[in-house]
Amino acid sequence: MANLLSVFFSICVLCVFLLAGKVLRVKVKLFQRIYLPASIIGGFLGLVAGPFILDLLPAEIMVTWQQIPGILINLVFATLFLGVAIPGVRMLWKQGGSQLCTE
Amino acid sequence: MTGLFSVFISICLLCIFLLAGKILRVKIRLFQNIYLPSSIIGGFIGLLCGPFILDILPETVTTTWQQIPGILINVVFATLFLGVAIPGVRKLWSQGGSQLCFGMVIGSGQYFVGLLLTVLILTPLFNVPHIFGTVLEIGFAGGHGTAAGMEEVFLNLGYPAGSALGYMSATVGIIVAVVGGIFYINIAIRKGYCRNIDASKGIPEFKKSGLIKNESDRHPIATATVASESIEPLAFHLAITAVAILIGWAMLAGVKNIHPVLEGFPLFPLAMIGGMIVQVISKPLKVDRYYDKRSFDRILGVSLDLLVVAAISSLKLDLFIANFWPFMMLMAAGIAWVFFCLIWLAPRMLPVNWFERGITEYGMQTGVTAIGLLLLRLVDPEYKTDTAQAFGFKQMLYEPFFGGGFITATAPFIVINMGIWWTIALALIVITAFLILSALNGWLRFKPHTLYPSKSLP
């Protein structure tokens, strides 16, 4: 059983990295020019702080972080078609058919 | 690792119970008439399925649910003051002072009444420990969240029944707040206490079922202040909240070092201070302009809804039943106290709009802030009186202490370490101090202020 409090703490720290990414996006012109999302910048900050480079992060945080993407992806895909009225196949094909074939 | 995945599935399941609560709210008239939130209904469905009754939930689910309230309460308290510009003390006092004095008297009165009843009757009769009396304020002025936050405190002090009773006290508080509040509003309308009531208009239907059918009644739930290509606005606000919580966490380490007695001090009041600190330092950094109050409200709302379902679902029913009679007597005393404050004290302590201000305070002190504002909506539909603002200002000075603030967090420690009589004396001193303060400002009078407001004044 995962200790939920340590999971909670790890997620709070994760959020701080996201925020740090946002701060860099606001401050560094280069990141703005290539429209690099704050999440990617924050991710690289986390990578630098992680076990392969600076190794500043406690193991319990890393263990939680490793599991997060595999869980949140389910939320991402679950919400993809929620709140959208799904049109008939005919209309889908007519409007999106050419786009579909190029994929 | 299956750890986090099982947590994830447990949370998904928790959401299903919340949704089931919403369906019952939409379908069952009674729940609509008492404005019972979906989260409470869903929580009781969860309690029914839980280990004490039907026992159809897997253990991994119930062990996760047990831990959820104590975690989410930190999120709730961290967001409480985020996105709100904190005004100067002078302004707070001139607009919210009379309301604050009134609120402080009700809040510390809940300790006074609860502890006095405990020491004089409940402990001799039912052999409950003295900290039993603190459950009244935790559930009434506080709520389910506060009860969740106090769980660890009660465990540390060797009284595990405390949080179960706290949750029940909060549930009773919410029902009494709505049912009693609407009952008294009906009397007040007939007596002409309300300034702006439009009895013919009534309550909009969508408030009852909670489904907003008309496009025109719908409203955006937040405003984007950052572009989602760079960072998702809700994630940005979540990250700010996380910073507040981590500041609270750092302060907690400091508090625990002060004295071993404070070993079990809860995180949530400090998360609230963390939120205030973030708000204050954001102003000179000019980032506070990107804080959207309503985004923080969403985070608070989601956390609180899930918290309540989890809290009621994992209620330790055996501990509650074992304390049933002393608990009911404590509730009766609490209800008598809040009604005394609403009917007798409010017109003597609130110089203007006493009824609007009194009913809001009553709703918050018995149930939660949202119920206080719901009751205000019923008697002042467009917020034409200054009540909403006065109440908001009062909350800024009140929340750091009662209803989950420092006094709530430390009261059980004080009862255990200084004794119950000292705690009762302290509560009495606080009550007296705020009565005197109120009188010195000309707010408290023995003869009521104008009971019947003239309808023309704003």
The N- to C-terminal Cα distance of chain A equals 43 Å
Number of strands of chain B: 0
Number of helices of chain B: 19
Overall pLDDT confidence of chain B: 91
Low-pLDDT segments, ≥5 res of chain A: none
In N-to-C order, the SSE pattern of chain B is: HHHHHHHHHHHHHHHHHHH
- The level of helicity of chain A is over 70%
Q: What about the largest sheet of chain B?
A: none
Mean pLDDT of chain A: 93
Short descriptors:
heterodimer, A: 103 residues, 5 helices, B: 458 residues, mainly alpha, 70% helix, globular
Can you put this structure into words, describing what you see?
The complex is a heterodimer of chains A (103) and B (458). Chain A is mostly helical and 103 residues long. Chain A contains five helices and no strands. Chain A has helices spanning 4-27, 29-33, 38-49, 59-79, 89-102. In chain A, α1 (4-27) packs across α3 (38-49) and α1 (4-27) packs across α4. Chain A is extended. The mean pLDDT of chain A is 93. By secondary structure, chain B is an all-alpha fold. Chain B has a domain at 70-201 and 231-300 and 323-440. Chain B has 19 helices and no strands. The chains are: A mainly alpha (103), B mainly alpha (458). The A-B interface holds A 1-2, 4-5, 7-9, 11-16, 18-19, 21-22, 25, 35, 37-39, 63-64, 66-68, 70-71, 74 and B 1, 3-8, 60, 63-64, 67-68, 70-71, 74, 226, 229-231, 235-236, 238-243, 245-246, 249.
